[in-house]
Design goal:
- With 543 residues, this protein is of the alpha+beta class.
- Among the domains are: 248 residues, FAD/NAD(P)-binding domain (3-Layer(bba) Sandwich); 102 residues, Glutaredoxin, CATH 3.40.30.120.
- 28% of the residues lie in helices and 28% in strands.
- The two termini are 48 Å apart.
């Protein structure tokens, strides 16, 4: 992405000299996070709340150079809610769940991303990235386990068998640090990736899009509007999103040969927006042009160096899959790394991060590539298919499945050895390997009013008693459905397809690891061992 105009930074932070810079020998930390964007800050928060001290290094001292990412999905909000930061995001953000697709000037169809009630988090919020980062920084400041170091730029990295050595450049000169684990959250131009000589594999697109944030008061609803071939931008596509502070995000497709310098001049931008809105009562807040690629590095884990977010994978912006996927990277890694550092899981458990998040990256890349091909067809055949799909979508729900204006971000359903295969049939919304669906409840011991809030930070076992309660499970929170976990609306039972005796094992990242139609202590213990990456005779015996 190339920004030609940007607002001044909204938030800045002071550089402070660390005691580590005055040590005779390099200071050692269990985890160093490189990059204080949404992904790095989320990873730091998750680890800190699990008792792991974290040092976060960022080469800048500010937040706010353009709104950048704005769309955050339900699953991402559930993760941030667990970390104690979702509420202020919801209060500031614009909540939405309806999208509309237009062709020329006509509405083709609309969709609802969350048509059913009984969910704590909305389908999506729109919130400028600088607000997201500010709220994450403020939450980190509340935790003594997180140390944020601004204007600390990593300029060197040496990997060893059991640790890494980083060279850090600051306004006071350079200094070394060592770490058991380095989390590379330093974005698309990752210096850590460059130090390791890692390249991306995937497809580079020539298409370019003009992205403009305008400030105005408008009567448009809080919805996602996408146009194919609109009258105000003939032959191309356009997207409109509402943000807080009377800011509206507008994306306009450009020719692959468009001149960036010319396209971002205000004398050219303003007439485009005026044609779209039909008036000049707006102020341009930020302008940029982006091109993109759909790609990833081959592996996300390289010894003690782990890649997350844009440092590991990149996708097109259609569907809001980039930032959301990066936050879900952090969610997947946090509990595993804490378990390894705490001696509760073997080091090999980290390999499952690579397995599961590579699966997620491949899904996102596939969706993003197909979205781009549909939005910006490169051949006559692709364009004819798109036009036929849009025509069919006007009349049938079947046709709408072929329209792709950006498949919006959803959580990956992991298909990995960490899950115990179902031995019985289950209906309901819950899926093995997926995040547990939320539902209203009453958990008497904690006062929680939502199922995800009632889960523990470690493993959780949910059981629907069919007689006497089973014995407690070591190292896991136990929730007895209908007893300490009341289900006043019946939605917990419905979404889990819970019957008397049904038992569910939920991972620390709230993904469903196992479920059984009866309670067997050996099965439960084996499922937890399997999800923790521990070999177990029980886990083999109960395959």
């Amino acid at each position: 992405m190339v920004a030609q105009e940007s607002r001044k930074p909204l938030f800045s932070f002071d550089y402070r000299r660390s005691p580590d810079q005055d040590r005779a020998r390099p200071a050692h930390h269990p985890v160093i996070v490189v990059g204080a964007g949404p992904v790095g800050l989320t990873a730091a928060l998750d680890l800190a709340l699990r008792g792991v001290p974290v040092v976060v290094l960022d080469d800048t001292d500010r937040i706010g150079e353009g709104s950048r990412g704005i769309c955050y999905a339900k699953r991402t909000l559930e993760i941030w809610d667990r970390l104690g930061v979702a509420r202020p995001m919801l209060e500031k953000g614009v909540t939405w769940q309806v999208g509309k697709v237009f062709q020329a000037g006509d509405l083709v169809y609309q969709f609802d991303l969350l048509p059913e009630a009984g969910h704590k988090m909305p389908a999506f919020i729109n919130l400028q990235q600088y607000y997201v980062e500010k709220l994450l920084v403020e939450r980190c400041a509340e935790l003594p386990e997180v140390e944020l170091r601004w204007r600390n730029k990593v300029v060197g990295l040496e990997r060893h068998a059991d640790h890494s050595v980083l060279t850090i450049d600051t306004p006071d000169g350079s200094y070394p640090l060592t770490a058991d684990w380095v989390l590379a959250c330093d974005g698309a131009r990752s210096s850590i990736r460059a130090f390791l000589g890692l390249g991306f594999e995937g497809e580079v697109f020539d298409e370019r899009f003009l992205i403009t944030d305008v400030r105005m008061t408008a009567p448009f609803p809080s919805e996602r509007w996408f146009w194919f071939d609109p009258p105000f931008h003939s032959g191309q596509s356009a997207l409109l999103h509402k943000q807080p502070d009377d800011i509206w995000r507008i994306d306009l497709q450009l020719s692959p040969k468009a001149d960036i310098e010319s396209e971002t001049r205000l004398e050219n931008v303003v007439p485009r927006i005026e044609r779209m809105l039909g008036h000049r009562d707006f102020e341009v807040d930020w302008v940029s042009v982006y091109s993109f690629q759909c790609c990833r590095i081959a592996r996300f884990v390289h010894g003690g160096v782990i890649f997350l977010g844009d440092a590991a994978h990149q996708v097109s912006p259609f569907g809001a899959r980039g930032g959301n996927s990066g936050v879900q990277d952090a969610d997947n890694l946090g509990w595993k790394l804490a378990a390894v550092l705490g001696g509760d899981a073997p080091r090999d458990l980290i390999e499952s991060y690579d397995l599961e998040r590579c699966q997620a990256a491949d899904e996102n890349i596939g969706h993003s590539t197909r979205s781009t091909d549909f939005i910006a067809p490169r051949t006559n055949t692709e364009r004819h298919f798109r036009d036929a799909a849009l025509a069919l979508a006007r009349r049938t729900g079947f046709g709408r499945r072929y329209v792709n204006s950006g498949r919006l971000s959803t959580a990956t359903i992991y298909d990995t050895p960490l899950s115990t295969p179902d031995r019985d049939a289950f209906a309901g919304a819950a899926r093995l390997g997926a995040p547990l669906p939320d539902a209203p409840c009453r958990h008497q011991p904690s006062g929680a009013r939502w199922l995800l809030d009632a889960l523990g930070r470690g493993f959780t076992v949910i059981h629907a008693p069919d007689g006497s309660a089973p014995p407690p499970v070591a190292d896991a929170r136990q929730l007895l459905l209908g007893r300490d976990l009341e289900d006043p609306q019946g939605l917990v039972s419905q979404r889990l397809d819970a019957r008397a005796g049904s038992t569910y094992v939920v991972r620390p990242d709230q993904h469903l690891a196992a479920r059984f139609r009866s309670y067997d202590p050996a099965w439960v213990a084996a499922a937890i061992a399997r999800a923790s990456g521990r070999t177990s005779e029980s886990s083999e015996a109960h395959e």
